[in-house]
Amino acid sequence: MKKEKLIKKFDKQVKMYENNRKNATLLPWRKKLIKKAYGNVLEVGVGAGANFPFYTKETVQVTGVDFSSEMIKSAKQSASNYHFHTEFLEEDVDHLTFAPNSFDCIVSTLSLCSYAKPHELMNKFNDWCREDGTVLLMEHGLSSNLFLSYTQKIIDPLHKKIAGCHCNRDIGKIVKHSDLQIKNIETYWSGILYLIWAIPNKN
């Protein structure tokens, strides 16, 4: 799918993302992950700002990135309800550049499914994150259940066309084969949902 078409698809999904801010199933996992964020934070695929309630406002400054102008507008509105420093960039993360060691923490939640080269993005995270920093991921991907994973592989082309993202990516494998070092990984929903705490490997 061409990038321009993908951006328009996400522009049209903003109301769904706003409604999903209060998804009762995801809220405890978001809280568990985001409470570990601190300092100068980069959140990629910020969407409608669903993670904002869980940042510790006294200890973070958040730079939110998204390629959808409608998502950025929604995220700005959400951020106004909280009192921590936020900046927003309407940019394609695949083409984004930051100086090495720019951030204390990098956050991605439910966004790796839509990037063309997620492995390369993980390596960018490794470069952008400070040596003593952390990378926090909550992502959906290929199930550990053989029947479910087979189904995901079959429906992935249709899922990509409708939702704009892949459902058949092995998130654990992508991160393990990147430059990042995994400190902890938890899976839920028959292995479909991943919580990953990682640190940069500067060697």
Structure commentary:
- By secondary structure, the protein is of the alpha/beta class.
- The protein has a single domain (3-199), classed as Vaccinia Virus protein VP39 (Rossmann fold), CATH 3.40.50.
- 34% of the residues lie in helices and 26% in strands.
- The chain has seven helices and seven strands.
- Helix 4 links the parallel strand 2 (60-66) and strand 3.
- The longest helix has 18 residues, at 146-163.
- The chain is globular.
- The model has no long low-confidence stretch (mean pLDDT 94).
Percentage of helical residues? 25-40%
Which residue ranges are poorly predicted, with pLDDT under 50 across at least 5 consecutive positions?
Answer: none
| Secondary-structure element string | HHHEEHEEHEHHEE
Please give the count of helices.
Answer: 7
Chain-averaged pLDDT = 94
> Strands of the largest sheet, in order across it?
3-2-1-4-5-7-6
CATH superfamily: Vaccinia Virus protein VP39
Number of strands: 7
| CATH topology title | Rossmann fold
Reported for the largest beta sheet, the result is: 7 strands, mixed
What's the overall geometry?
A: globular
Structural class: alpha/beta
Summed up, the domain count is: 1
The first-to-last residue Cα distance is: 36 Å
